[in-house]
Specification:
With 194 residues, this protein is mainly alpha-helical. 73% of the residues lie in helices and 3% in strands.
Length: 194
């Protein structure tokens, strides 16, 4: 029986629903974010229950399909019936709220990042760029037309971060070239003394 897959909104890691009660913390094993803040007990309880119910449903459907006669179980219809029970609109609303909150957080982070010196930015830039990419991916997955303004903000902010990252790389390359030239000068000077 194939396990039900879920994912963490914070880091987008896919994990098996059966892993959640085994870990027992209610936190994502990758990033440590709480999967259902304030509802850990309910999360663990329902994850265990889903596992039992999945086994029971699979056994029931298997017995039905093995009955002699003319009954044919339509697997696609079983999947569709289960999927129809999931609260899609609530999920979309939750995703929109998460996108809005992350957008606000990243705008503040970019303003703080802009106040940093270039050397300090080097440590912050990769994480910031990764968060922008994750948020952009989430917006693409949601495919929400009402987030056109957010798309523009994300593109501008990501472009600013990428430009700064390029500037940092250029600074680093320039410093490395200066160091190599200075080393060459030192080595050339030592060679001349011999």
């Amino acid at each position: 029986m194939e396990a039900i897959k879920v994912s963490c909104r914070a880091c987008e890691r896919v994990l098996l629903l059966t892993e959640i009660p085994k870990l027992g913390t209610g936190a994502c094993p990758t990033c440590g974010a709480m999967l259902a803040p304030g509802y850990t007990h309910l999360l663990l309880q329902e994850a265990r229950r889903a596992e039992v119910l999945q086994r029971d449903l699979a056994a029931c459907l298997r017995r039905l399909s093995e009955l002699p006669g003319n009954l044919v179980l339509d697997r696609d219809a079983v999947y569709a019936a289960l999927a129809a029970e999931l609260p899609v609109e609530e999920q979309l609303a939750a995703d929109r709220a998460l996108i809005d909150a992350e957008s606000r957080t990243l705008r503040r982070a970019v303003r703080q990042w802009q106040r940093l010196r270039h050397r300090e930015r080097a440590h912050v830039t990769p994480g910031l760029v990764a968060r922008f990419r994750a948020l952009a991916q989430r917006v693409r997955l949601l495919n929400a037309s009402d987030h056109d303004a957010e798309h523009a903000v994300l593109r501008e902010a990501e472009q600013a971060v990428n430009e700064a990252a390029d500037a940092i790389r250029r600074e680093r390359l320039h410093a490395e070239m200066k160091a190599a030239a200075a080393l060459d000068d030192v080595l050339a000077g030592k060679g001349g003394d011999r």
